[in-house]
Amino acid sequence: MDSDVRLTGKEELRRALRERRTQVPEEAQRTAAASLSGHVLSWLAATSAGESSGTVAAYLSGPPEPGTGELLPALRKAGYDVVVPVCEPQYQLSWVRWEPGVELAKSPRAPLLEPVGRRFRFTELGTIQLVVVPGLAMDAAGNRLGQGGGYYDRFLAQLHAEHPAAPAIGYLYDEEVLPKGSFGATVLDMPLPGAFTPSGYRSAL
Ligand SMILES: Nc1nc2c(c(=O)[nH]1)N(C=O)[C@@H](CNc1ccc(C(=O)N[C@@H](CCC(=O)O)C(=O)O)cc1)CN2
Ligand SMILES: Nc1ncnc2c1ncn2[C@@H]1O[C@H](COP(=O)(O)OP(=O)(O)OP(=O)(O)O)[C@@H](O)[C@H]1O
Asked: What GO terms describe the biological role, i.e. biological process, of this protein (predicted)?
């Protein structure tokens, strides 16, 4: 993970970041996923004053994303309801409850697996303690570079309008927290307050 990422156009930057993720050795992937999971659980324990209830909206990672395979069962074990996104038409997300062993099916809209089961709008989920947001990078101002669908920008705009207090935090490798201005942001981009990384929670400026 020590190769430089050239700071050029968004598409080229996405390609370089995806490529760098594919270079992370398996052992380092496992260690990173375990650290990330631990930081999310510690953050939740610290912010919810020991009350492990409510919903965490996370996602099912696919290679080469930082793994959530350890995080999701740890969240359930700690007492949270866990939901993961399903891609709907017009780049909307709905949410399905995740449990260990839940049946998965290939999304018709994205190269991803999604749980089979009842779909909820986020407004039906009760208290959202945390949204764990996927992405390829965050800059120091909290701007997020995602996969390019705009699913999370739309969702986070709706979430912010209805539940302004619900925290939405990135889930990245350390090297993906980039200097401010590393990529262009528009008014539609929803800045994050910070990101979980294997070394800990990294707050945006
Ligand atoms: N694990 C994970 N789940 C996630 C996301 C993510 O980043 N990671 N998403 C974060 O947003 C959403 C899906 N994001 C997507 C972003 C772009 C495209 C995309 O480029 N689709 C192409 C067709 C791709 C194909 O079928 O090969 C397109 O719409 O033209 C698809 C999904 C919801 N679930
Ligand atoms: N709130 C919104 N309403 C309508 N269109 C939006 C909104 N947010 C983003 N878009 C559009 O979605 C497209 C993709 O946006 P962008 O490149 O920022 O995606 P991304 O954040 O990388 O992707 P994702 O959120 O899926 O990870 C752009 O055309 C953008 O204009």
From this structure: folic acid-containing compound biosynthetic process; tetrahydrofolate interconversion
Q: How far is the CA of 190 from the centre of ligand 2 (A)?
A: 9
Residue at 18 is within a domain: yes
Is residue 5 in some structural domain? no
CATH code for the domain in which residue 194 is found: 3.40.50.10420
pLDDT in tens, 24-62: 999 999 999 999 999 999 999 999 776 788 999 999 999
Q: Is residue 194 part of a domain?
A: yes
189 lines ligand 2 (CB under 6 A): yes
What the block records as the tokens of 138 is: 């965050």
The answer to the question of whether 113 is labelled as a binding residue is no
Domain count, the chain: 1
Residue 150 belongs to some domain of the structure: yes
Distance of CA 98 to the CA centre of its chain: 15
The answer to whether 114 is a known ligand-binding residue is no
Residue closest by Cα to atom 22 of ligand 1: 110
Q: State the complex-level ipTM.
A: 0.92
- Between strands 92-97 and 81-88, the pairing is antiparallel
Q: Of 150, 158, 156, which is closest to residue 192 (Cα–Cα)?
A: 156
Output the CA 151–ligand 2 centroid distance in Å.
Answer: 6
Task: State the pTM of this model.
Answer: 0.95
